[in-house]
## 1
Amino acid sequence: MSTQDELRVIALAEFTSAGYSATSLQRIAELAGVSKSSVLYHFTSKEQLLEAAISPAIDQMETVLAPLETIGSLGDRQRFLEDFVDFLLMYRLEVNMFINQGPSLVDVPVIERGSALVVRLAQFFSQNSQSVEENMRFGIALGGAAYMLCTASTYGLEFPADETRAALISIMSELLAPISTR
Amino acid sequence: MSTQDELRVIALAEFTSAGYSATSLQRIAELAGVSKSSVLYHFTSKEQLLEAAISPAIDQMETVLAPLETIGSLGDRQRFLEDFVDFLLMYRLEVNMFINQGPSLVDVPVIERGSALVVRLAQFFSQNSQSVEENMRFGIALGGAAYMLCTASTYGLEFPADETRAALISIMSELLAPISTR
DNA sequence: GAAAGTGCTGACCGATCGGTCAGCTATTCT
DNA sequence: AGAATAGCTGACCGATCGGTCAGCACTTTC
């Protein structure tokens, strides 16, 4: 792995666990075994390092959300949900960071891009219902999943990957099912 | 409201929205219309200001969790859940901060106290089941509720208080119901 | 073999951080 | 009236922050 890739991976892990503003370039450099100057050679600023760390996840979310407006049958919906859960599992660090720290990182372009996607997703899941509960079910599913996938390990909870996937799909299906099928 | 109380309220709001480490004492002082020195007169350090800001919430959580081990009937359980939801609503800022930034604030005593309470709560809701899904339902309910109560406003969502309470109780009851009743 | 480019470094910069301290003002206590 | 206390302040401190820059070693290109 190139130094640049290594820095991106380390930065993502630190940004997620300690927080963006609490993570110094110096610390990232030390963890990577290079100098701070080297970090700023590969990335022109701390903010650009953040962009590089999470933009692949936002790109992938864009791809996963592409067929959103064409979902028709319940089968379509189930397939989309599974793809979305796979996305959450694959990019759990990025998602957690976006969910937890996104609101304090407005004006970072990639964060705004992600926010727009979340709004689009929320609109889909509540388009046939303006009820408070319906909107809250979506919020709890999204925020809860992001929380589970990262923060849970704080309490020493570690789950097998396949079981995690199955459980997540099951719970989110339940939370996000159309009213008519509940 | 005394200057001290005002500082605590402002600090809590800023810590929650911008993050603990991203919030400077200077900024808190400016928002309160006093000098930075004045902040450090009322609170001996930034960390102690954090303690003062969230310890009332942790105290209240301790009170709410007190009857946890004596819960017997489904009625007990329902009453506890309602009390817990009321606690979440009352201390939404503190809870959000604890959930989102707690893991990066270990070694702060009040955070550790809160973590112990969450562990105790998790054990209750999964004591009769070590299944992955059961544990995840708890995590999603807790993390999701915390997310909804604060971050959702980022996306311009604002719900009436009473509807929020009812919906939250309904959703969390569903997520945390004993397996036997599902 | 000179020139150009890549990866990386230490020295250094201004700004800001959390925190200390002496001292000011106004109120309260004796 | 005088002493003590509470509330608050500006000046200042060392440390650390993100970021700049000249220059080093090495490889590739011409």
## 2
Amino acid sequence: MERKKFENSPCSIARSLDVLGDWWNPLILRECLYGNTRFDELQFWLDISRNILTRRLAVLVDAGLLDKVAYQTRPKRFEYLLTDKGHDACVVLLALMPFGERWYFKNGQHPIELRDRKTGALVTPEIIDSNTGKRLDSRDLIPCPGPGFRAPKAIMKRRFSEFYSETTK
Amino acid sequence: MERKKFENSPCSIARSLDVLGDWWNPLILRECLYGNTRFDELQFWLDISRNILTRRLAVLVDAGLLDKVAYQTRPKRFEYLLTDKGHDACVVLLALMPFGERWYFKNGQHPIELRDRKTGALVTPEIIDSNTGKRLDSRDLIPCPGPGFRAPKAIMKRRFSEFYSETTK
DNA sequence: CTAATGAGTTGCATAATAGAACTCAAGATG
DNA sequence: CATCTTGAGTTCTATTATGCAACTCATTAG
């Protein structure tokens, strides 16, 4: 059976997972960010099957995260460059780094760190609430219907029971 | 063939993807965060096959992101609660929201928004560099070997050519 | 006594993966 | 000129994983 698609899901997370909810796509983006943008470079660093790499690259180009660009003609050779959307996705991937470091590389023994290309300053990704500037803690949060929410009342009630009872009593 | 595992990969992103690099696991965590923590609730909201849900839940429990807890005996019934690690992973997932909203829900028409459980204030996830407080831009970044980096010199040179030439000339 | 609930199993057809080998064009080498 | 090498993919096959539907099973509710 074909993998389920979330393109019509009423959830930003779900829709993003159509292209990022997979193990190879994020890693391909990572390599492109690291400057390994050609087929054989990607294959070498990721140790991915060539047929899979072919397909994933097509998907990423199709989804608008990568651009397939010829870096020479005669013989035609290509590289895969991050688009704006691709760079935006990379930022999300970088948000995985502190999580991975905390849970899979204890004692600060993480293998890679990020630096500013110009200044060389250490860069540490962190996820905050931009309204308060404070680090996000999922325990404090509650989901509410946003401006584009559309659903039958029964579903609405079922999903936002707390919210619903608060605003109607 | 069995899906490739990254548990020994020298990369925080790759190791995190062993459990988060998939479409169902993140969505299951999302539902648990939203308070839908029981088998049938998860099945209803995610519209996931029951056999797949069973397996994924076992994986998430095994990976330490969820706890399987009996909420009643006679008949024994369970719910799946987020652990500390699970909550930490949720924060990463929430970082997908602005990406999804930007690229899949134009014009601010996103369906869900987050609010502080106590104050009701709007919460907007954003990924910043905690050293400067500025929004992260992947274009400005360069990866460098971190404290736990281990690799043969040839590989080191190949991956960090820019870094390597800078520090040795 | 029958129905409903919650939480899974079991069986099956179809896709996706991993792995390895093969293709193909254009330069480079001897 | 014949062969080698590079870059970028195909093709083939054996396993897995996914999605779907139907089935189980214990316990309580009516």
## 3
Amino acid sequence: MPHLTDPRPQLTERLREHGIGPTHQRIEIARALFARMTHLSADQVLAAVNARHAETSKATVYNTLKLFVEKGLVREVIVDPTKVFYDPNMAPHHHFYDVETGEITDIEADRIAIGGLPSLPPGKVAAGLDLIIRIRSGA
Amino acid sequence: MPHLTDPRPQLTERLREHGIGPTHQRIEIARALFARMTHLSADQVLAAVNARHAETSKATVYNTLKLFVEKGLVREVIVDPTKVFYDPNMAPHHHFYDVETGEITDIEADRIAIGGLPSLPPGKVAAGLDLIIRIRSGA
DNA sequence: CAGGAGTCTGGACTCTGTCTAACCGCCCGC
DNA sequence: GCGGGCGGTTAGACAGAGTCCAGACTCCTG
């Protein structure tokens, strides 16, 4: 009975598509993000990777996450001043951020209409658009 | 010839309006923000205050900025994972963030139309809406 | 098998922000 | 005025995220 759903081949493929040489550590880090498909902070990724066999250093996790962002494999979500979250969902979308629990939830982009975007300062191009709706419990 | 534009009385007044007891340190911190009307990080505020006569400790600057945010005197802008910026402009508006220079620029709210905001998760209320457009130089 | 480029590692380090315990000063009741 | 209390301030130790560095490792190529 062969392993039915080993994700490593798909992950290797996906890394290659983005011009990232697949190494053991990079595959494990990609697995941590794409297996869960949730927003993880760098230290959550580190913990998830090391909870399995693969021992990986903090520096490698930080370097790799930065590389993934540069190569367009994941997206940075900056909502909490104390840590950065990494979002494996690259489809256009926005975020709810619960300021009490720290929970981040996706909002599909086509559920919000943003119109009349202003002209950019001269010589500048858009590098990203983040709409963050902060929420808390209450009446 | 009396001092024509000493801002301290206005600042004292403004602090009182927001239920903040005016102390020397708080007035100096408010002055640093409102004299410039730009986005400053906590350590920039600390440097600005201490560049004048007033010696003020790091803890007081952090405590005071947090107090100002609670009382609705200034607004936190979270765009850079390494530090929080404080924005004395409380009128509804959004932000450009230059990822290369770190510069933050205001966009008046009525220049952007955001429609069809999604329903919030049950039991939650909106606590703020931040639209950040990241820009960089380039073609 | 040797060389080299690229990758990984642990640990020291930096920096923003928090905490704590003592101190100060202002105001209020007497 | 005088004393006491309490909010505000302080310096410095501390915590946690992220960076840096020099050395070691891996894997590909010739």
## 4
Amino acid sequence: MGRVSDAKERLMGAVRELIWEGSYGSTTIDQICEKAGVKKGSFYYFFDSKADLAVAAIDEEWGRRRTELDSLFSPTIPPIERLRGYCDYCYRVQAEIRSKCGCVLGCPLFSLGSEISTQEDRLQKRIQEILDQKRKYLESAIRDAHAAGVIHAPDPAAKARTLFAYYQGLLTEARIHDKLEILGDAVRGTYELLGVKGTEPVPA
Amino acid sequence: MGRVSDAKERLMGAVRELIWEGSYGSTTIDQICEKAGVKKGSFYYFFDSKADLAVAAIDEEWGRRRTELDSLFSPTIPPIERLRGYCDYCYRVQAEIRSKCGCVLGCPLFSLGSEISTQEDRLQKRIQEILDQKRKYLESAIRDAHAAGVIHAPDPAAKARTLFAYYQGLLTEARIHDKLEILGDAVRGTYELLGVKGTEPVPA
DNA sequence: AAAATAGTTGACTATTTGGTCCACTTTGAT
DNA sequence: ATCAAAGTGGACCAAATAGTCAACTATTTT
């Protein structure tokens, strides 16, 4: 089968880091190659373009994230607990990245999706799909919470869209302001938004 | 006083459009000059760099937006009405841009801020400041609403952060998915998030 | 061991890009 | 009318960038 190599994986890792820490537009193929320790010839042996690499890199990463989310959103966990656990998870991820890179970086998919929304069609499509899948986790937790009578959410899909927008907004604000504390509001915001019973304002 | 020119303004307009329609990283100085109908020599006569131009362009635009927001958030308007009016305004702006450019483009500041968060310090600072100012409109409407007894929000700053994150999340989703309808949820989301009385779920 | 497969390398090209320079032109003020 | 300030044009440069290619090397299969 000829010689084997992990250059492909190194390239995917490199582009992920560079885009997340900087931006898609500001990362060059030369930079990616240097970070991955791979020559340009090899880059073009594996990929056709930066966009092509980005798609592969995102897919690979999503595979990993998905299993983490599967366990965070396990139906064995009470639905509101799942959301709380997800908030904690996001906080932990950002805290980790900050201690490693010195910056809060937010959600790589959301930032990238926003950046290239009018360019790179293939990449954009993939990002949309993955974000849609992520929203499903929230939707199902919300539906279960409604079924359990913990919240009132007759339209779980709509609620999930709202909650998802809020989460992504928070993460992006955390990136823009480089402030981890911003994410500290996530759980409270979730409860407010869903009107979780027991934490509601005292009715007037 | 020598000759006068609007080349400076044309450059600011051009960079705003290019960044909004594409991204900061993908717009080049040559492109900006071409769109503005200005030669590079003149560009560098007025500005030191792309980042320098971007700061000026943002400031200029913010001056205009601010007066619009001032009237949308006039204290003479009932607070919840202000928020509803703002949602409508956002929708109109996006609908307009879509019919002009063919795409929903979201909030230029938020997208830009997310893109360059780890680069271009001066620009980033300015974006943070303006976003902070925008949040103040929400904060004051929320405070007034609380005072009027229309909502329960003992910490208006916190509520404003939550609502702002939600709005920005929605706008960015609208950009990412190029879907205007996403913004149709804004008013409902606002009411849910603030627990506006009269639209609350029936208590169990 | 040979052959086929898989991956590497670095030198190379063409283009784009940011940035400079300065002679030139237009305009308002005197 | 003239002079200085304000702005323009475009040639020019160096560096960065995307992308190509053919010769080379390492590994597995037969």
